[in-house]
Every structure is written in C-alpha cells, then in structure tokens.
Amino acid sequence: MSDHRLSPPDKKRGVPMQHMQQSIPTNPPPKVVIPDQFNATTAFLDRHVLEGRGSKIAVYHENQSYTYAQIVELANRIGNGLLDLGVDMEQRVALILFDTPQYAAAFFGTIKIGAVPIPTNTALRPDDYVYMLNDSRARVLLIHDTLWQSLKHIRPNLTSLRHVVVIGLQEPESATLHNFDRWIAQASSTLATAQTSKDDSAFWLYSSGSTGFPKGCVHLQHDMTYCTEYYAKPILGINEDDITFSAAKLYFAYGLGNNLYFPFSVGASAAYYSGRPLAEAMFQSIERYRATIFYGVPTLYASMLALPDAAKRFDCSSVRVCVSAGEALPADILHRWEDTFHIPILDGIGSTEILHIFISNRLGEIKAGSTGKLVPGYEAMITDEQEHPVPQGNIGNLLISGDSIAAYYWNKHEKTKNTFAGRWIHTGDKYYQDEEGYYWYCGRSDDMLKVGGQWVSPIEVENTLIAHPAVLEAAVVGIFDESDLVKPKAYVTLRAGYEPSDTLAEELKAFVRERIAAFKYPRYLEFIPELPKTATGKIQRFLLRETGRTEPLPPTRARE
Questions:
Q1: Has residue 22 been placed in a domain?
Q2: Residue 179, SS3?
Q3: What does the pLDDT look like over 297-324, one tens digit per residue?
C-alpha cells in the first residue's frame, strides 16, 4: 500500500498548481532524520535502558512506580506472549485497557514484534466493539476483567479473534482465554526487535465519522517521532525532568502522545489515572505526583474552575504549563484559569489522522480564543469549496500537510480518497488566519460535534432517538453553553398521541444514554412541531443552531 503523503497535490482534486499557496511556519522545523530500518520501540523505550536510564521512573500508577527497565521487561514478556499465541508481523492486537503500566508495555511490546496495537476506547457499547474488532481483524484482545465481564457475551460475534488475554481474570482459563499474569510469567523477558522499516504500520487508531462508522487510521513507525520532534520538544520544551499527567486517556490520539510517547521520548515520567477524569480527582493527581505538564480539554478546565476554593485546596505549583485540545478553548476559560492558578494553557488542535497537535499557541505568545500558530514541520492551506486558497482573513476549509499524517483509512478506499489529497489532508474544520499568523476555529465543515474532546455523530444520536416509540423525527446540533463550550441539543417532533413534557425529555435522554456511548447523549432537548427543511426535505440544521444558542455569538466566531 502506498503512502498517500508522498505524491504532490494535483489537479484531479481541484487544486490548480498555480493556486497552491502554503502557510509555512516562520521558524524552520527541526531536522528529523529517521533510518530506513526503524522500530518505534527502540526509539521510545529500549534505548533508555541501553543509555543508562533503566532505573529512572517511567510510570507512576496509584501507589506504585515502574522504572524503564521494568516496562521494558514487561513489554518483552508481552511481545513473547503474543508470539506464543501465533501473532505474526502486521497482525492486529486490540487494547481495551485502562491507563496502567500494562498499557504502555502492551503498546510497545506489540510494536516490537512488528504487530500492530489498536488502542480502543473503553467507554463504547458492545456493538461498537464488534464493528472495530471485526473490521480490524484483530487476532488477540488484551482487556481488563471489569471490561471483559461486560463484553464477553459478544465473543461469538468476533470473527477474526483467536485469543483473549485478561488482566485480573476472575474465571477459569481455556485454550483461548488467558490470565494475563500467568501468561506473561511463562514468557521470556528478552525479545528480539522485529526488522521493521520506518514506513511499516506501527499502530492504528479509530476515528469517528459522520456516518457513525469509525475509520481505522493506519499510523506508521515514524509518526510518533515527528509529533515529538515537531511539537513536544520545541513547543512544550518537554525534558527528562518532567512528570506528565493527562486527563485524556491513552486510547485517544491526544492522550497517547501526552502520557506515553512524549514522556518516553525524553526519559521523563508519566502519571497514570485509571478512573474518570473528574475535576477533583485531576487536582488530587496533579498534587500527588507533582506533575509539571497537565493536559486537559476545555470542558474539564471549566469544571475544575467551578470547584469552590480550588486554588486554596490544591497545590498546583509544580505545573509549569497546561495544554488544551479536543475542542476550541474559550478565551474566558483561559483568562479565568490564568487569573486563578497563574499557569498558562496552550490551546491547540490535533486530530486522530494527524496524530497530535499541528497548530498551537506558544508560551509567551498566547492569543486568547485562537488556536495559535502553525507548528513548525507542518504546512497549512485554507481553501474555498473549489479548493482554491482564500485571502488571509477569510473563512475556509483547513488542509494540513506533515509527516505524522496517517497513511490511509483501513478498508475505506473512498473515504481515503476524499480525505487524503496527495500530501495534504482535509481536516474537516473551518478556519481563518489573522494578519499575525494566528488561526481561529469557526466550526466544522460537516455536522460532526466535538463534545468534551470526543467526536459525536448527530446522525447516530438522531437514529437512536427515532427508535423511541414517541419520536417521529429528530435533529441534533451543537450549541454553545454558558461557558462557550459545545453541547449536543436535540430537537424532537413527537408522534400522534404523545405530549411534550419535562418527564418525557428526561426519558429520551436516558433512552439515548442506555443505547450508545453515554458521552453522546443530548444535554438539551426541545420539542418542536416540525423540523425546518429544504424543498427537497433536507433538515436545515444551521437554522436550529442559530435558534438553539444559549448565549450571544462570541466575537471570535462572529465572522462565520
């Protein structure tokens, strides 16, 4: 399979060569040299032992700490265990795991043998897992027992899965069901590194789509290195003395960089928290581990600010910089955070396809409300609907070029063609760039919503609502709440015989929560006699967005 990043833009995508105006960072990108024969585990894990940092703490988790040497040994045992189960190079291994040291070891242990780990969201519904596991043809699943207990009933539906390895297994083992502790105890602690190239598949991450069907983003062995060298080192200044802590979990592209390969790239330490990222728990973990870099999302920063006397109750003095991504950070939240805790937040944008942040604010150069400036190593274009670059200051579709972009979508040829254009990728975001080079987010090119840092497909929520016997039609849009954060709002028309009521509204919200991932349910629900539609019957969601807003449009979005 060819790497779609290598060919130049061409006319078949509607981007005439004479119109190709690129936005390139004023600072030259770091020079990154990666040998043709390259395995990411060597660069991010094994070299720390070889270079004398084996006794350095790699991971803090609960009341324990794990050195780099211990993570290396565990990764080797997991890699050998997978080989014993018959896993070959390029075969997939699904990880449905909480943020634990075993996660880090499983991720790199799988890559070390040339197989492909797939970090997978732990908050999905059984049908989602059936789709992803069958689509990826994963041969082995590594999972925590509490998650396995809620999923083991789908085992007969998993057509390619051969083995399940369970951490904390509470039932008898079998030829295909293995207790993690016993499984690794039988495996060797030494492991040869597979002879992979820098362009081999390293791992996949599933990205949601407007159809509701996730897409497997195929990331290559070199992708993590580019994100580290372009963003983590020059923008964050990450170094060996840092202790990272991320509210975003390791199964997110954002969290995977934040709390695994970024700290591992420099021999720093990462603090893992397996529970839900609630505000008080985040403060407690920052204080407990003396984190120096904290990664959150705007919704979380708002909830942390809402805790009474948080600045007095919790010691955040160890934190030198905070990072925000996943959705646009409102200027008000940034100002209140800086006024309260005296710590800067660097807002930025990344994506699963591009792996991590490619536009970001910088220390000492923060412009509140903006996404920041282009990260050196990436290029950007803002284009009109005909894919011609627009004048500076005009809103258009954001395209990005850079070496961390996924090679393609697994088994999604048409979607690959529509998203990957030569070395450019269509992000699906609307942006404009001001005269100082700062980028300003203006919404999505499609109807997808980013809620609490996670993608929500309006179509999926609408289809779930329509399954309720009271619902005739439904339309879901994103509206801004009082904190200027996007939340899903459902507009519902009822069938004959049903009357609008607060009780029914709550029943419908609960109906959605019970059937799809809970974070997708509509926070607001309004009954209306009919949905606004075009002459051809298409729902006019833009009219619902305009009427559904809880607060006036902020100046940074008024240009939309």
A1: no
A2: strand
A3: 987 998 899 899 999 999 999 999 999 9
Looking at the structure, do residues 381 and 395 belong to the same domain, yes or no?
Answer: yes
Helix, strand, or coil (residue 57) = strand
Q: Are 276 and 305 in contact (CB under 8 A)?
A: no
| pTM of the complete model | 0.82
In a domain? residue 102: yes
Q: Is residue 273 part of a domain?
A: yes
* Co-location of 292 and 381 in the same domain: yes
Report how far residue 50's alpha carbon sits from residue 43's, in angstroms, rounded to the nearest whole number.
11
Q: Are 104 and 59 in contact (CB under 8 A)?
A: yes
Q: Residue-wise over 137-176: b if at least 16 C-beta within 10 A, else e?
A: ebbbbbbbeebbeebbeeeeebeebebbbbbebeeeeeee
Report the CATH number that the domain containing residue 253 is assigned in CATH: 3.40.50.12780
Do residue 256 and residue 380 come from a single domain? yes
Closest among 427, 287, 320, 441 to 369, alpha carbons compared: 441
- Tell me the per-residue pLDDT of 11-24, one tens digit each, with 9 for 90 and over: 333 343 333 345 66
Regions in the chain scoring below 70 on pLDDT: 1-26, 209-212, 533-538, 547-560
